[in-house]
Specification:
Blueprint (H helix, E strand, L loop, with lengths): L3 H7 L5 H9 L3 E3 L2 E2 L13 E3 L2 E2 L7 E6 L28 E2 L8 E7 L2 H8 L7 E7 L5 H9 L13 E8 L4 E8 L6 H7 L5 E9 L2 E2 L8 E3 L2 H16 L1
Helix pairs in contact: 1-2
The structure holds uracil.
Length: about 240
């Protein structure tokens, strides 16, 4: 059961912090009774009113998108750049991206209005494999591959978990290496920072899969609803990963 402020925020009328203020100000009723304490957990199906108006309860929805290039993983951009949410204008629920792919990164992205689910999937404590196709400017050496496989220390002092590395192409003429990299965490700009350890820059980055999910059937910019069994499967994987 969720707390009152969370339910109000999830209905889309305001933020969680403002919802708390509204509760304390006595503007919220649960089944006809004013509730002024924070942290109350209304029964399922309770009638919740803010300023005398019943709030709409949003269904939880889960989407899988093929994120194209040059689209931001934020809800809004002050410079007017396109966001992933702009691509989903016909979706009524207020979805947000689960984690981030950089502006120029393409590939598999989840979007949902379920904050709990999002936390389970993106928190580095819950290990779900993500496969990236990477091209870097330089020839990756054998000992660097070993280091990636064992875990490297990033600029913030955190050591990455062991990764799987599969070199797909070494282009000596253009001095580029293409590889598939499977990582378990999803730290901020993780792949780029892993490559920066060796002074290499990422030229192309594409997330091919997340756990059992792939982009099959989708073109860049397209998305689909996840099947209930896929949501369950991801939750289960996250839970199993947490215990490791
Ligand atoms: N790692 C990165 O550096 N960028 C991404 O977009 C995803 C993973």
């Amino acid at each position: 059961m969720d707390r009152l402020q969370k339910i109000i925020a999830a209905s889309g009328i305001t933020s969680r912090r403002k919802a708390e203020e509204m509760i304390v100000q006595g503007r919220v009723r649960v089944d006809g009774q004013v509730v002024k304490e924070l942290g109350v957990k209304p029964r399922k199906g309770a009638l919740i009113e803010v300023d005398g108006k019943a709030i709409a309860r949003e269904n939880k929805v889960y989407y899988l998108m093929y994120k194209p290039k040059k689209v931001l993983c934020t809800l809004h951009d002050e410079h007017g750049r396109k966001t992933v949410v702009d691509l989903m204008s016909e979706v009524e629920e207020r979805v947000f991206p689960v984690g981030r792919l950089d502006y120029d990164t393409t590939g598999l992205l989840l979007l949902t209005n379920d904050g709990e689910f999002a936390n389970e999937i993106i928190h580095p404590r819950y290990h779900i494999s993500k496969v990236y196709e990477v091209t870097v400017n330089g020839i990756l050496k054998t000992d660097q591959i070993k280091q990636l496989e064992n875990g490297v220390v990033l600029d913030d002092g955190i050591r990455t978990l062991p990764a799987k590395v599969w070199i797909t192409h070494k282009d000596f003429e253009r001095q580029q290496t293409s590889l598939e990299l499977t990582i378990q965490e999803g730290r901020n700009r993780q792949i780029k920072r892993m490559m920066e350890v060796f002074g290499l820059q990422v030229r192309r980055l594409h997330r091919r899969s997340l756990g059992p999910l792939t982009l099959r059937g989708l073109n860049p910019g397209e998305y689909r609803l996840m099947k209930p069994y896929e949501v369950k499967q991801l939750r289960r994987l996250a839970e199993e990963g947490r215990l490791k």
